[in-house]
What we know:
Blueprint (H helix, E strand, L loop, with lengths): L7 E5 L4 H12 L3 E6 L2 H11 L3 E5 L5 H14 L5 E4 L14 H29 L2 E6 L12 H21 L4 E8 L2 E2 L9 H5 L8 E2 H12 L10 E4 L7
Amino acid sequence: MKRVDGKVAIVTGGARGMGASHVQKLASEGAKVVFTDLDIEAGKALQEDIGPDVLFLEQDVTDADAWGSVIEEAAHTFGPVSVLVNNAGINYSAAMEEFSEDAYDRVIEVNQKAVFLGMKAVVPSMKQAGEGSIINISSIGGIRGRLESIAYSASKFAVTGMTKVAALELGQYGIRVNSIHPSLVNTDMFSENAGGGSVAGDRPLGRVLTKEEVSNLVLHLASDESSYTTGAECVIDGGLTAR
């Protein structure tokens, strides 16, 4: 038996990078996965690559009505949703004095408000399923400060706090809520050949985190293996924050 057989998952920001890795991992372990993104071309390509166990939908995660439509379509296609991975996120880098209000608002809207909208919207479906695991992708930027990331850090600290509140409120329904805090992940946008060596040297494990390693943690939290884990900050950073 595969580790998430019978579960229906939604993954936001799932067309590329770390999100696509989560989609592939969950589907390979038996879940039916609805994944969303604004990148329609990449989303359709990934759906075709994986096959009938996944469904791609275009979604603006900051739109409350869009959340309702995605959850309704997931339930219609596969059944009640039992896993939500809030993965979609953006970042702008600038010193605080130079950070525009518009840029700040946009980061908060995508990284923080969308997580709230997703958690709120999925609860009725998880109640129907009789179980639930909400996995919010935060960052080590959600547990310590980082230069030139005033909005990103604000949003990720907020995700950390919202996760704990949701875990307290939803535990009575058998819904678990946890946050994942990766350090810099080696995706297509990052290469060790472009400064990764010096970054890796900051970590006690001496290398950069891979997207597959984050997906393994997502799988664990989505599965019944983590049935007593809720409200947790799951740090995956090679020991960086242990210093």
